[in-house]
Write a structure and sequence with these properties.
The protein has 196 residues and is mainly beta. The protein has two helices and twelve strands.
Length: 196
Amino acid sequence: MATMCSAVRNGLLLAPVLGLFLLGTGDLRAEIVPVGTEEAARLMGYVYADLDGDSVRDDFERPIRLVEILLRGTDENGQTVNRSTVTRYDGTYVFDDLLAGLYEIIEIQPYKYIEGKPNAPGTAGGKAKGSNRFVGISLEAGVEATGYNFGEWGLKPKYVSKRPYLSLVPEPSTLVMLMAGVGLLVLARRQAARAN
């Protein structure tokens, strides 16, 4: 349990110090008031290229990084929560240090990707509202809620590049050597066939 300490004299806050919350009127008196007794919770998920279109993240499906993810909601104290993050290199995103409350997670559609189908909600429940939003996530104190994933169908055609495939074409000198090798193999097989 965390507590806060402040000195108050005649209703004025004199000095905040971690430990106790001192309230006073007239003469200085002390009262301990607990602050922040709730356990922090987390919401997390993954953004990926859903190559087989099944709305389930498979090992062979690559992550999508730098996608903006928004968190909106109201915590158990009635405070409005508005946070944002971006996916990491491995496609994951995390919202740490959350109080229990009712939340929604929104993915800002990555412009290079074709929008995928909705994924199933994660471990704290809620429901998918379209393919870029989870609503009604009822997060409890201390819970690490996972599985709020967003799948995209792949790159839009204008963003597909031949560059990765061009590196597979051999150098001209290698190609000549390969052709000469194939020619020698064919010649050797013909000679072997004549000998039999």
